[in-house]
Amino acid sequence: MSNEPQKRATIFDIANALGISHTTVSRALNNSPKVKISTRKKILQTAHKLNYVPNQNARGLNQGRTYTIGLFFTDLQNGTSALFLTSIILNIRSQLPENYFLSINSISSTDELGVFDGVIVVSQSKKDQIFIDKLISENIPVVVLNRHIKNRNIYNYWLDNYEASRKITLHALNSGSRNVGIIQGKSDYNSTHERSQGYLDALSFWTNKYPHRPLYRHLPLKGDYSSEGGYLAMKTLLQDLDNLPDYVFIENDDMAIGALKAINEASNLAKRIRISGFDDTKMAAFSIPALTTIHSPIAEMTTLGVATLNRLLNKGSSTNTPLNKRFECPIIFRETLPKK
């Protein structure tokens, strides 16, 4: 006989048992007049049969609501790493009260917002502001992650793409790199502009500080945040064997893995090409060679985002909750760009 505690039934178990929506179950358990008396009776009977015990924290937080949180990305199909999406989704889902349902959406493909108790927007483009303004106008609690929104009275937590990119590029230059290139992400994403600007400002700083130390800059190449894009961009850089880069700043790990494949396939390189990625995805530590990258503190950012949304939904005090917060992105040194 197992001594393991029995898993507590949820509203989803009740909904599955009756073949109805979890929203109807949640409304019935909260005595909503929208549910017929006969339906409510069946739901209560099933809840008793399944030994359903309500999560008091969730009930206090969500009474009279739909138990649905909307998680919106700029785009689910193009320019967003699958590993980035997975990391965000798993982190947010693990922190929601168990009675909540997480609805994952693309900003470009939604019309109905009234079904959401609150919304978390993982914003990657300025174009998202129209959608965010719509949420605010409809008084839907919202927290915006990933992109810095300037001069907006809204809860907003973002990654410092710029400073991390500047620091890692300066490290490569200080380590002896003098022939450099960059593989950029999707052109209309804020992260691309911030990471590219950090790289460019590091080069300008170096040139101004050491005007007598020649520095060759390859033209920027587009990789659109995909492994295939990184592979093709690096193949282009490798075509001129007489002018190979000795360092390439690559704006995410997916593209960097593709670039490593192109480098590993080349058997006639006269010098070692050092590269770095961005995001610190799980595969970065297992690439050959292991990828030096910049860690994106997604878990910390999403933890604060969910906690803030919970407070907004509960209409509780948010005195200790920052309205805005910038998360620093540390460098994780591995084999493709040594620390020393």
Indicate the low-confidence ranges by residue numbers: 1-5, 56-62
Name the helicity range.
25-40%
Tell me the number of structural domains: 3
Rounded to the nearest angstrom, the radius of gyration is 24 Å
Instruction: Spell out the helices and strands N to C.
Output: HHHHEHEEHEEHEHEEHEHEEHEE
**Global structural class:** alpha/beta
What's the story with the biggest beta sheet?
6 strands, parallel
Query: Which sequence of strands runs across the widest sheet?
Result: 2-1-3-4-5-12
- The dominant shape is elongated
Give me the CATH architecture of the largest domain, please: 3-Layer(aba) Sandwich
Number of helices: 11
Instruction: Report the CATH topology name of the largest domain.
Output: Rossmann fold
The top level CATH class name of the largest domain:
Alpha Beta
Strand elements, count: 13
Q: Strands, helices and their partners?
A:
Elements: H1 11-18, H2 22-29, H3 37-49, H4 56-62, E1 68-73, H5 82-95, E2 101-106, E3 118-122, H6 129-137, E4 142-146, E5 155-159, H7 161-174, E6 179-184, H8 190-209, E7 216-217, E8 221-222, H9 227-237, E9 247-250, H10 253-265, E10 274-276, E11 293-294, H11 298-314, E12 324-327, E13 331-332
Parallel strand pairs: 1-2, 1-3, 3-4, 4-5, 5-12, 6-7, 6-8, 6-9, 9-10
Antiparallel strand pairs: 11-13
Helix pairs in contact: 1-2, 1-3, 5-11, 7-8, 9-10
